[in-house]
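pipeline/complex-builder :: batch 7 item 3
reading input block
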Amino acid sequence: MPVPYWTPRRVWLLAGYAAAVCALLCAPLYLNDFRLNLLAKFLALAIAALGLDLIWGYTGILSLGHGVFFGLGAYAMAMHLKLAASGGKLPDFMSWSGLSKLPWFWKPFESPAFAILAGVLLPVMLALLLGWFTFRNRIKGVYFTILTQALVIITTTLFVGQQAYTGGTNGITGYSTLFGFKIADPQTKVWLYLATAVVLFAAFALCRYLTGSRFGRVLRAIRDGENRARFIGYDPALYQMAAFCISAGLAGLAGMLFVLHVGIISPSMMGIVPSIEMVLWVAIGGRGTLIGAVLGAILMNGAKSVLSESYPELWTLLIGLLFVAVVVFMPRGLAGIADLPAALRRRRVRSDENDGVGSVNGARNAAGAETGGTEGVRHSPV
Amino acid sequence: MRPAQKPGEPKASDILRCEEVVVDFDGFKALQGMNLTLRQGELRFLIGPNGAGKTTLLDVICGKVKPASGRVLFRGAVDLTRKREHTIAELGIGRKFQAPSIFPSLTVREHLEIAMRQNRGVFATLTAKMTAEDDDRIAAQLKMIGLEAKAGFKAGSLSHGEKQWLEIGMMLMQEPEVLLLDEPAAGMTDRETEKTGILLREIARKQSVIVVEHDMEFVRNFASTVTVMHEGRLLAEGSMEDVQRDERVMEVYLGRRRDADADRSTA
């Protein structure tokens, strides 16, 4: 019996996606400038969450260093914006620090195309470098995670220390135009918001393709049993590096968009705390589901801005409590709620089975019948 | 029956030759100059008391353990001890571990899909499409291992025996030339063991197989060569009857059981 393509689940899913896309694209119509800007920021962060989910949720490698990849993307964009705002003169913080000439590595960032390319490629290259030395040497688990934390500390220390080149603790701010358009202009902001939404859709589609492909199945296989995958003939290091690089590239992309909406990037925005926060969005949203990562990022940041407007001191407490609650009661995060009814139904079926059927044989038949009905197994033509 | 210590002359029909393999685990010599020759299309049983080094030998062949000295020649030319695990698997050596190791969150069908013989590079799997031929092969394999009805099940929900069969199915999808099976019938019910035996016969028709097995009854059902290992060395080689008549074998392995039986009968 062939499985119908339009299962009710698929229809609901598509309808849900379509509604979400419409709601996001129409947001400029019903949100004021301030809220729209906030939402744009959250959507940018959701792109980073998608990337993190790819490496953590699907490949099983926890990175607590994604702030760095995010930061590199953000700095690449910020460098271009700063040069554009300085109008051919030396950026202000450089002259304050006593530089008289633009450093060589700043020069190419005058080109927006170069800056955008660098914003993605720099994080990818850094991830490749770290992955090359770790995954190939089978450094994983906690040890890898600690190394990513070290990467954060090294990078932020470097950025703070090299004030003349990076703007130090203050970071880089004071932008005016992008592609000749005034960034502060409400009209530009709407376009930037829409661009961010479109990039998020594209990133989501990319991740869906990746996780639904055979590549994605190999990633999950490596997550479940790295050695077993190796003895089938896959080189886990290559796959881990690929996933890590794509993940870092997405974080860089998110950083670039983030800078456009927020107007500043500083080392504290790429440090340990933001790196861990990203992991929390994915954990609370539902690790291993793409929609969970997106929802986690948007809802958590939404809650953060609402709550910290009125009770700034409560926010950190609340996020801690929420995290504990999710880990204990909803290991699959917010995305797990959607599957709750199905899980309950299955549990009921299973207990019926245990009550009714004594013999092992019978139980097996019952289980077979259950699949035939709900999962719609394709029977082989042979 | 051959006196077992010397590796013998290499022949063109040898698909796998282990020569003087020594494995040293921090001073403990798990293998002390092990020799083994497997002919093309042969089904070989590897027996021996616990700690004889049977599993270690399989580990060396599939690259999990690197020997201190010795060679493992595949098709007379490639020294496997210098290759990495995934390369060895790609060369055509499949391994089934003793404990069933499957990917709990992948479905049965997905297991066979990724195990299927194919280009295993990142870009190849990114663009891989299921062809009608692939579908047929997977369907045929599902039928062979008897898991057709569970194709859409997550492997984590399978029973112990089903997991073992799934692993055997994955190995067959790899189309290896040499299969290494570590106690394929361990922990199975009688019926499951019987089914595993049938599977094994099916496999041995086309491929060269080495099976580590403790269950003597299971081994006796197959008329094939048995290699007895003891303390990291080859002790005896021949048919089950030959091996059982061998004095040294009785002493180190089968004899022990006989003594135990004798003790029980006198007690």
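note: Chain A has 17 helices and four strands.
queue -> next item
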